[in-house]
Specification:
This protein is an alpha/beta fold. The protein contains 11 helices and 8 strands. It is about 45% helix and about 15% strand. A 6-stranded parallel sheet has the order 3-2-1-6-7-8. It has a two-stranded antiparallel ribbon with strand order 4-5. Belongs to the HAD-like hydrolase superfamily. SerB family. InterPro entries: HAD-like_SerB, HAD-like_sf, HAD_sf.
């Protein structure tokens, strides 16, 4: 299969709509209150992503990899992912996860729904257990750079790429691709994106999809009148 375009999907707040994946795991690790406070400070610009990662990683200490993998099988995701992935496969568009979520989260979602995991921060593993320290930091600029590298390595022009996300961690990637969609997003992402939409499903059955346009295009077009954004011309082929 020759890849004709790429859609980069954020995870937390986008594919995981009700909470961050780190918060989901922190409830099981037992440090949810500490992490929630740190994530709020990140959202307000008081902490860096690296500082939040250090706080979060400590809670993983001594937990087996297999336990985390089992927990992630229950991670709640937005409806419609399989329909979007099916459309992508049918039209030679690569659905890629581009996120600041921990790599095991991206790996779990990729395995469940057939997306491609590409990058993310890592908690160090000793033997088969997490040791509570950060093995690799990954911020919003790393996310952008990894996405652009992925496109280049797969011979896909950036003109045939788009990004879907919800928060300030998506802004550098939004600025790097020609079109972007703010999905259930905050004010910063809405202002930066080509279009915005609020929805409980990332799939759509509008006529645009049946004409061979990606689902994100339909979402962008349907929201253009209410957001004042131009239509999302994502992954034209």
């Amino acid at each position: 299969m020759s890849t004709r375009g790429i859609v980069f999907f954020d995870i937390d707040g986008t594919l995981v709509p009700s909470m961050s994946s780190s918060s989901f795991l922190a409830k099981r690790f037992g440090h949810a209150r500490v992490l929630d406070a740190a994530e709020q400070r990140y959202a307000e610009g008081e902490l860096t992503n690296e500082e939040v990662s250090v706080i979060d990683a400590e809670g993983w200490r001594g937990t087996p990899m297999s336990t985390v993998a089992a927990w992630l099988e229950e991670l709640p995701l937005i409806a419609g992912i399989d329909a979007v992935v099916a459309w992508c496969v049918q039209h030679d568009v690569e659905p890629v996860l581009a996120s600041l979520a921990w790599q095991p989260v991206a790996d779990a979602i990729a395995k469940r729904h057939g997306l491609t995991a590409d990058g993310g921060p890592r908690v160090r593993v000793v033997g088969s257990d997490y040791d509570g320290t950060v093995a690799e930091h990954f911020n919003e600029y790393d996310k952008r750079d990894r996405a652009l590298q992925f496109a280049a390595e797969h011979g896909v022009s950036i003109d045939h790429c788009c990004a879907i996300g919800d928060s300030r961690s998506d802004l550098p990637l939004f600025a790097a691709v020609p079109t972007s969609l703010a999905l259930n997003a905050g004010a910063a992402a809405r202002a930066a994106a080509s279009a915005a939409v609020d929805t409980k499903t990332c799939a759509t059955s509008s006529p645009g999809s049946r004409r061979g346009k990606p689902p994100s295009t339909d979402l962008g077009r349907s929201s253009a009148q209410t957001t004042g954004s131009r239509s999302l011309r994502c992954v034209h082929t």
